[in-house]
Amino acid sequence: MKNTGVIFFVLPILAFGVVHQVDMVGLAFVPDTLTISEGDSVLWVNTSALFHTTTSGAGGVPSGYWDSGLMSPNDSFAFHFDSAGVFPYFCTPHWTLGMVGLVNVQPLGIEEMTKGVSGSVTVLMAYPNPFARFVHLGYSVNVPGRLQVAVYNSAGQLVASILNNHVTTGSYTATWDGKDAFGNRVSPGVYFIGAHFGDEYLQEKVIILE
Ligand SMILES: [Cu+2]
User: How far does the centroid of ligand 1 lie from the alpha carbon of residue 192, in Å?
Assistant: First the structure.
């Protein structure tokens, strides 16, 4: 098989990752147990009509890793897990009613470093994620070609073009400053950074914080 395509790689090796979503539904975290990889993030979204927290710890005793504080309906909170381990958490008002969860963070293996394979070796990563001001992307290509990198909102609409270049074989970085095509800072939330290379398309979900 001809080995063509885009390879996205991490810049600082610790902190790329996937964003996993946990919904707060009624009096439960859904899913209540999540297995992720070192470097991934968890985004809690309060889809219920109640007020909740996500607070690391067990038995109502915070462990100090994260605490969202009270989240209104539709609020979200993200935490980046940069080390492996088992992280129980709970909702402060509702843990006695069984509103508890667990994040199991596994050490990073080679298999987790390869994502978005689309007929060739292809990895897409973003750092840091979630981010406040800048998100960096690392990529390399093993054949020359036109590489387009663009940001889309969750409705799939184009927000900004980051890169549209003919590139030769090699490694590059690109940065998105969280601004749209008019130079205005976009609102916080979920965006997708997509890379087109030949007939391949890959995307990475990123989150902009307030
Ligand atoms: Cu709750």
Answer: 29
Tell me the residue range of the domain where 40 lies: 19-106
Distance 7 CA to ligand 1 centre (A): 41
Q: pLDDT tens, 43-60?
A: 999 999 999 999 999 999
Q: pLDDT of 105-127, one tens digit each?
A: 887 643 333 344 343 434 456 77
Whether 97 and 58 share a structural domain: yes
Q: Are 92 and 151 in a shared domain?
A: no
Here the tokens at position 143 are 């054949």
The structural domain count of the chain equals 2
**d(CA 106, ligand 1 centre) in Å:** 26
Question: How close is the Cα of 70 to the center of ligand 1, in Å?
Answer: 9
DSSP 65-114: EEE---B-TT-EEEEE--S-EEEEEE-TTTGGGT-EEEEEEEPP-HHHH-
Please state the pTM of the whole predicted model. Answer: 0.49
